[in-house]
Specification:
This protein is α/β, with parallel strands linked by helices. It is built from eight helices and five strands, in the order E-E-E-H-E-H-E-H-H-H-H-H-H.
């Protein structure tokens, strides 16, 4: 019993909830410290080694920060026990399970921390689906005083809470799941094109290194040019290295071509395809 209530004092915590979903493997902790001033608010972080004590301490910090900022909210905090570097699909499954798990916690308003990454969009959609108000903010749009650029968790939390309270923290439009899937093809193609350019530049630098191409030569690197230089390569080592990069280049060509074909097909069936192509 003493272990269960070891954090208890005059302020709280009001409740500490442990969530577990066998289907997804979700393990999460929610600490609602104090709601004397209003519904508890606090971020959701994702970390593999987070502890109940850490979540409670962060929730207590939110209680004190909100009170100091004279906000009508108590303090809370949540954590998903997982590696934030998990594949996006796996993170999204955990975030969705977390949102379902906290749907009944009406005295806590969550907000994703930076560790949530793109899965914060999935969390936002799930929270809205359960009737929980949520906004996603574009970080560069947050007001920052010219002479007040020192960043700490305490200052950031206070600033965000103050801006939200007076209505100066504006949310961005969050794409629907269908819109994100539609954009996935164009974004992936762009990423592969950038990867291909990087590989071509590595081949160029190898040729520069051995004097096969002058440093002021801006000639485009083509498959034909690579073949010509390999035929007169100065060493076996250069051949092995360039051929390794060249194989990656050819593979990227094939994958980009597949995406191009799929995009052409979608362009015929989806009137918004031109919009997806221009979207970041």
């Amino acid at each position: 019993m003493d272990t269960i209530f070891r954090f208890a004092d005059d302020l709280g915590p009001e409740k500490i909830v442990h969530l577990y979903d066998p289907a997804t493997g979700l393990k999460a902790i929610v600490a609602i410290d104090n709601v004397a001033l209003g519904t508890a608010i606090g971020g959701v972080r994702m970390a593999p080694d987070v502890t109940t004590e850490e979540v409670f301490r962060l929730a207590r910090a939110m209680t004190l920060k909100n009170a100091a900022a004279n906000l009508p909210h108590g303090g809370g905090k949540a954590a998903i026990v997982a590696d934030p570097k998990l594949p996006l699909a796996e993170k999204e499954r955990l975030v969705r399970a977390f949102a379902r798990g906290i749907a009944s916690l009406t005295d806590y308003i969550p907000g994703p921390d930076y560790e949530a990454g793109f899965s914060a969009f999935a969390l936002h959609r799930q929270l809205v689906r359960y009737g929980i108000e949520s906004i996603v903010v574009h970080v560069p749009s947050i007001e920052v005083a010219v002479n007040n650029r020192v960043k700490t968790d305490k200052r950031d939390a206070s600033k965000l809470a103050s801006l939200l309270e007076v209505g100066r923290l504006k949310g961005v439009q969050v794409s629907t799941e269908k819109e994100e899937l539609n954009r996935m093809l164009t974004r992936t193609r762009q990423q592969l094109v950038e990867d291909r350019t990087a590989v071509k530049n590595r081949i160029r630098m190898k040729f520069h290194q051995l004097g096969l191409i002058d440093f002021d030569n801006n000639q485009s690197i083509t498959h034909k040019l690579v073949q010509e230089h390999l035929e007169r390569a100065l060493s076996k080592e250069l051949t092995v290295v360039v051929e390794a990069y060249w194989a990656i280049w050819k593979s990227l060509d094939e994958q980009i071509a597949k995406l191009d074909n799929e995009l052409k097909f979608k362009e015929k069936s989806d009137p918004n395809e031109s919009t997806y192509r221009s979207a970041p």
